[in-house]
Specification:
The chain is α/β, with parallel strands linked by helices. It has seven helices and seven strands, in the order E-H-E-H-E-H-E-H-E-H-E-H-H-E. The chain has a single domain (about 5-250), classed as Rossmann fold (3-Layer(aba) Sandwich), CATH 3.40.50. The longest helix is centred in the middle third of the chain and has 29 residues, at about 110-140. Bound molecules: NADPH dihydro-nicotinamide-adenine-dinucleotide phosphate. NADPH dihydro-nicotinamide-adenine-dinucleotide phosphate binds next to helix 1 and strand 2.
Length: about 260
């Protein structure tokens, strides 16, 4: 197989949670451009409409469903709908995320804690479990979890986020071990600081200067800069890579 063909995703169906904005949107468009049919779960109607029209422009079969991934009973029917319309899901990108800037556990409310853990961790477990069932049947699959710099570092400001993102890396390794015999690879991407809705407010804070100073690349990442790693981890090119976390951070974590 030629090197370039290793990265082709034609014939695959990818499900991207939170693919209607930010990093998830870039991953969705990138996987579609590489040939995969793309399904998205997102909550916001307007954002869902917009990404659907962008996906349609690629000419690739696509589907955007209004799904809140913390609504557990909605997940199985939504996955079934994707599989009925597009075919068996071969690529799952657990990307959807929220943060709660509580300033630390002393201020963190139980509700906010639960909401972050439900979105960033519990939904990842449930979606992976449901999607892995058909991957196991097909003896083929790719699961990509989105971690963070806070998968490695603690945070006094966003402890729930840091706890979830740390756990994601261990869950990635655990699922990788369990699912490897079925030819399913499970990996994570740990983005550094990327310009998205989630981080927009940081630009006006002193933290912005700290980020630029600490990042050897000297700048924020653009969401499209995740695409290469996402395509690689979705493709045959990574068939012997599993349980790995790839940092895409302009060098932030090496300082
Ligand atoms: P955005 O806020 O831009 O996008 C997050 C997406 O997740 C939204 O489009 C949102 O869709 C969706 N989402 C959130 N909650 C739910 C839910 N319950 N059900 C369905 N969809 C949901 O953030 P980013 O693109 O920045 O973040 C994407 C991922 O990358 C997250 O996991 C984040 O933690 C991680 N990350 C981001 C970094 C950054 O610097 N930006 C750094 C490291 C990691 P909707 O509006 O429709 O709810």
């Amino acid at each position: 197989m030629s090197a370039i063909k290793l990265f082709e995703l034609k014939g695959n169906v990818a499900l991207i949670t939170g693919g209607n904005g930010g990093i998830g949107r870039s991953i969705a468009i990138g996987l579609a451009e590489a040939g995969a049919s793309v399904a998205i779960f997102g909550r916001n109607r307007e954002k869902n409409k917009k990404i659907l029209s962008e996906l349609k422009k690629t000419g690739i079969p696509s589907l955007v469903l209004q799904v809140d991934i913390t609504n557990r009973s909605a997940l199985e029917p939504a996955i079934k709908k994707v599989e009925q319309e597009l075919g068996p899901i071969g690529i799952l990108v657990n990307n959807a995320g929220i943060k709660s800037v509580s300033g630390g556990i002393l201020n963190e409310t139980e509700e906010n804690w639960d909401s972050v853990i439900d979105t960033q961790l519990n939904a990842v477990f449930l979606l992976s479990k449901l999607v892995a069932k058909s991957m196991v049947k097909n003896k083929r699959g790719k699961i990509i979890n989105i971690g963070s710099m806070y998968s490695f570092f603690g945070s006094g400001r966003i402890p729930s986020y840091s706890a979830a993102k740390g756990a994601i890396i261990q869950l990635t390794k655990s699922m990788a071990i369990e699912l490897a015999p079925y030819n399913i690879q499970v990996n994570a991407i740990a983005p550094g600081w990327f310009e998205t809705d989630m981080t927009a407010s940081i630009k006006t804070l002193p933290l912005n200067d700290e980020i630029i100073l600490r990042t050897p690349a000297g700048r924020w990442g653009k969401p499209d800069e995740i695409i290469g790693t996402a395509v690689y981890l979705s493709s045959k090119a990574s068939d012997f890579v599993t349980g790995e976390t790839i940092r895409v951070d302009g060098g932030f974590a090496i300082r």
